[in-house]
Amino acid sequence: MRISDSGLRNTIQIVMLALVLVFPVLAHAAKVKQPEIVLSPKKVGPGDIAIVTLKNASGPVEGSFNNKPLHFNPVKNGYQAIVGIDLYLEPGDYPLQVTMNGKDKEQMMKIVKKKYPLQRLTLAKDKVELSPESEARVEFEQKKTAAIWPGESERHWKGPFVNPMPGKKLGTPFGVRRIINDIPKSSHTGVDLTADEGDEVKAPNAGIVALVDDLFFSGNSVILDHGQGIYTMFFHLSKITVQQGQAVSKGDVVGLVGSTGRASGAHLHWGVRIQGARVDPLQLIKLKIE
Q1: DSSP letters of 157-207?
Q2: Of 87, 104, 121, 241, which has the fewest Cβ atoms less than 10 A away?
C-alpha cells in the first residue's frame, strides 16, 4: 500500500514531535547523578577513624556500621558521618548499611591489619598487682564508665575538633601494646602528651561534661560528650575546672595537667570514643569535617 505524500509528512511530523518530547527527558536523566557511598580513607585499620560520605543523596538518611548506628549530617551535595574502628576489631569485611533516596544499600568495609609497637615497662609492684580492695574499686569504676558508651545524644560539636594542648610533644602514642613487669597488659587506648604540672587542658569541641571523678587508674578524670556518640576524655589531672552536666565550648579549660592516679609523672592522657570504639585521638583532629 502506497502512503500519500500528505500521510508521509504527517508521520514524519509525529515522529519528530515524539523525539522532541523524549530527548529532554533522556538528557535530564543523563545529567542526574546517581547516589553513591564514598569512604575516606579507603583503607582503615583497628583504631582508625573514617568519614562516610553519601554523595547526591536525599533524605531521610540513616546508616550503620557493624550494627552500630551512624549519624549523618547534611553537607554540600550529600551527607557525612564519622565512623570509628575499634582498636580491638579483628581485620576483615564488615557491613556498612545505609538508607538514602528511599532505598537500602549495603557494601562491605574492609578493615586491614594494623601493627602497633610493643612497650616494656617496669613499675612498682603495688601499681601492677592490685589488692582485693583495689580490684573491687577498679571493677566498679570500669562498670561506671562503660555505662557511658556508646551514648546517642544530640549533636553538640561544631566544625573540626582541635588539639586540647596544641604544641605539646607526643609521649606514648595510641595503640602501644604494653608488657609491665613481664605481665601483658591492655594496649594504650589514648595518647599521652608531655606537659608540665598545671598546664591548661582545653575542650577540643563543644560538648557536655559527662563525667567528673577521681578514678583508681586515671586519677582526676573528665569525660566530654560531644554528641552523636563522640566522647573525649582527659586523665591524671591535678585540678578539674568543670562540673558534671556543664556545657562547654571549644577551647574552654576543663582541667590542669597533673599526675594523679597510676602515673609516673605529669602528663595528659587523652582518649576518644566514637560509638564506643576506641580510636586514635590524633586522627580526630585531622578529620576534614563540617
Answers
A1: --S----SSTTPPB-S-TT-EEEETTEE-----EEEEE--TT-EEE-SS-E
A2: 104
Superfamily of domain 36-111 in the CATH hierarchy: Peptidoglycan hydrolase domains (2.60.40.1590)
pLDDT in tens, 239-279: 999 999 999 999 999 999 999 998 889 999 999 999 999 99
Q: Rounded distance, CA 149 to CA 278, Å?
A: 11
Q: How many residues does the chain have?
A: 290
Cis-peptide into 46, omega within 30 deg: no
Q: Which residues pair with 119 in a beta bridge?
A: 178
Strand (E) or helix (H) holding 270: strand 267-274
What one-character-per-residue DSSP string does 128-158 give? HS--HHHHHHHHHHHHHHHTTSS--PPP---
CB 242 within 8 A of CB 222: yes
Query: CATH homologous superfamily of domain 118-284?
Result: Glucose Permease (Domain IIA) (2.70.70.10)
